């Protein structure tokens, strides 16, 4: 029997399992450039890390007074992102090892992401992670994206797991806030180091301020294997 007991592990995708943010930045830059906004920078992109694609595009529409319909902008953004994601998406090596370690233990796992379903499928299939991560929830399938808990609660429902038995891996403050709101423990691996002091990360059971440089599959597994009361 697994040393994890009833624990289920729910992974965020972008910035947590895979370094897809450069692709999202480029897709966003291209989408905005097509609308006449040509000065979108990486620093501006970082403001939207952890927010669903739909919510991000909705914020852009208001901020830049874009005239195109939201659904048209979202379709353009997703199309551009898919082209980039299919060409190249980097999986963090220790995260892959962690997934494989959990799979070997027969642990219950899911992906809960703010990306569109097609984007999630493309990345999981292209990277080979789909072999282990078959339960997938997109923010497009629930009423509210992160920081609302909906996507994590739906993942728990599909796993037939009690939220209190779930541990979320997240790289962004909205995701950490969503995990807390869902009543789940969280391992936080900040993608943007400057955001590590965000109050939402203070709710995480384990905060790795060094981000992916600090994360190791074995230390995360050992933390998971500890009784929740000791975490």
UniProtKB/TrEMBL annotation:
<protein>
    <submittedName>
        <fullName>HAD family phosphatase</fullName>
    </submittedName>
</protein>
<dbReference type="InterPro" id="IPR006439">
    <property type="entry name" value="HAD-SF_hydro_IA"/>
</dbReference>
<dbReference type="InterPro" id="IPR023214">
    <property type="entry name" value="HAD_sf"/>
</dbReference>
<dbReference type="InterPro" id="IPR023198">
    <property type="entry name" value="PGP-like_dom2"/>
</dbReference>
<dbReference type="Pfam" id="PF00702">
    <property type="entry name" value="Hydrolase"/>
</dbReference>
<dbReference type="InterPro" id="IPR036412">
    <property type="entry name" value="HAD-like_sf"/>
</dbReference>
């Amino acid at each position: 029997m697994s040393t994890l007991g009833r624990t289920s592990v729910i992974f965020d995708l972008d910035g947590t399992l895979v370094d897809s943010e450069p692709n999202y930045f480029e897709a966003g830059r291209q989408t905005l450039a097509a609308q006449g906004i040509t000065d979108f920078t990486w620093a501006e992109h970082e403001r939207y890390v952890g927010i669903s694609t739909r919510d991000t595009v909705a914020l852009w529409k208001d901020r830049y007074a874009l005239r195109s319909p939201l659904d048209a902008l979202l379709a353009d953004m997703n199309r551009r992102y898919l082209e980039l994601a299919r060409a190249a998406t980097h999986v963090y090596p220790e995260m892959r090892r962690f997934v494989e370690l959990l799979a070997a233990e027969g642990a219950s796992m899911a992906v809960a992401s703010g990306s569109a379903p097609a984007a999630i499928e493309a990345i999981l299939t292209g990277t080979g992670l789909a072999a282990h991560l078959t339960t997938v929830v997109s923010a497009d399938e629930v009423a509210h994206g992160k920081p609302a808990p909906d996507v994590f609660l739906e993942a728990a429902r599909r796993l037939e797991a009690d939220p209190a038995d779930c541990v979320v891996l997240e790289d962004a403050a909205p995701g950490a806030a969503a995990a807390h709101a869902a009543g789940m423990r969280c391992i936080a691996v900040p993608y943007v180091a400057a955001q590590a002091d965000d109050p939402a990360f203070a709710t995480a059971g384990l905060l790795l301020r060094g981000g992916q440089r600090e994360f190791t599959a074995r230390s995360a597994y050992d933390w998971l294997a500890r009784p929740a009361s000791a975490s």
